[in-house]
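User: structure tokens for Large ribosomal subunit protein bL25, please.
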Amino acid sequence: MLTLQADKRQEKGKSFSRRLRINNKFPGVLYGSDKSEILLILDHNAVFNLQKKYEFYKENLFLLIGDEKYKVKVQAIQRHAFKLKLLHIDFIYV
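Assistant: Done. Predicted tokens:
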């Protein structure tokens, strides 16, 4: 099973997301039906390399946020229109 490292973020908005992307990171969110959402900061290169694998989309992933480990699945990915860049990712609890 694939594992991703993420950090929690407190800020939201367009300017914060742009600052993240300049530093080779991008925003994401983890949500589910009965649990509260967690705003995330992810490393672009790590996720970009993993998303090339078939298992990234079809199987469950482990998401490490600090000391906590969550079993998640990819819900949606936003990509740049013509650059090979990820802009945002949504995960759901499994």
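User: Anything notable?

Assistant: The helical segments are 14-22, 44-50, 55-58.
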